[in-house]
Amino acid sequence: MASMAAAIKNWLLGLAALFLLAAGGLAAQAAEFSVKRGINLDQWTTWPDESRWNEADVLLPFPEWRRTVGQPELEALRGIGFDFVRMPVDPSPFLSAQASRLHERLYDEVLESARRIQQAGLKVVVDLHLIPAGGNRSIGMGQVMDDPALFDRYVGLVGRMARSLSKEDPSRLALELMNEPVTECEGAAAGAWTERLKRLHAAAREAAPRLTLVLAGGCWGSAEGLAALDPAEFGDDNILWTFHSYAPFLVTHQGATWAGDFIRYVNGIPYPPHAVPAPEMERMLEGVRHRIRDEAPWSRRSGMLAYLDEEMAKLDTAEKLQAVMEEPFSVVSAWARRHGIEPPQILLGEFGMIRQEYGGEFVMPAASRAAYVRDMIDIAERHGYGWSIWSYGGAFGVVEEFESRKAEPDVLEAVRNLP
């Protein structure tokens, strides 16, 4: 009976979307919302245990950045040259029974946070930003994507969030329906994301006919994932299409323990790598090889050593490095031309370079981070795309690092000095 009820509900939702489209209710005009230069705010810094999500003083204010980032800090972002903020919102508390008594309050908190950003003279993308479960939380990206009933609840969450935001000025606020959907990058599983995204889109559009919706492809929100979508299937001009790029991953994620079993052993490679004299670079790479030989699982060592050499060979000249960084943009640009998508409808939602891994000792030189950000901005703006740096604080922090300590000013100065 439950499965039949869910099927009927999904059929009715699709029928409602078709009715709105036929009536001209689905985005009767192109997007009013447009952005150029942005920054991602933090999601969590304390990462509270789910067992305490029923405690108001643990979850509120929400999102957690409001405890340390006030109007002066938001207005400072505007003064640096940003025109919008991408505001990650963790959907897991909205899906957790542990936080049920606070659910309505959390929707109000998101709306209040978005309004505070707008009061600082910035536009805002409210970004529904699932992360992996485990440790101190039971619900995350994997559970939402693997459990049909939980995905149904996520669709409902998207609709409820859209309704909460629906009366905001559509030229000042947009809603992103899911951050970096974790799907296969090829085959039938990759194609299944389109049907799921259509459900999310229909729920949000029914609840908020005027808001610009931000849609990503599968495959972790990559350029290839976006290129697998057909915009015609959504019948909506009021959309920003988004993708993320951290190319070259070998450099941007050095030391990240959560990003796979190889990259955690890599550190000390500056940007751009080809600018370092060969003997100095060889000493740096030998340090990486030493860590792999000493710390990596025995069965993986030879493969990791070979992979390190292969990846470095892609970056050893300025031309090769440029090609690696340009490739995601070329994929998106080709897709956009095929489907008649104009450059202002495309958002590079995340890019950046790690400063320091949580608990790690290596700190990426500030000059390397600033140089990388300048180069990525140059590529994005030559294509006519808006962009937002990851992120305000934390491991990739450009304003703060950890525990509200100030990060080096180099990246912000690079933004401030943009033409």
Number of helices: 16
What is the name of the CATH class of the largest domain? Alpha Beta
**Overall 3D form:** globular
Helix content: 40-55%
According to DSSP, the number of beta strands is 8
- At CATH level 3, the topology of the largest domain is TIM Barrel
Name the strands of the widest sheet in spatial order. 1-2-3-4-5-6-7-8
Q: What order do the SSEs take from the amino end to the carboxyl end, as H and E?
A: HEHHEHHEHHEHEHHEHHHHEHEH
Please give the largest β-sheet: 8 strands, parallel, barrel
Note the gap between the termini: 61 Å
**Total individual domains:** 2
Strand content: 5-15%
Specify the structural class: alpha/beta
Outline the low-pLDDT stretches.
1-28
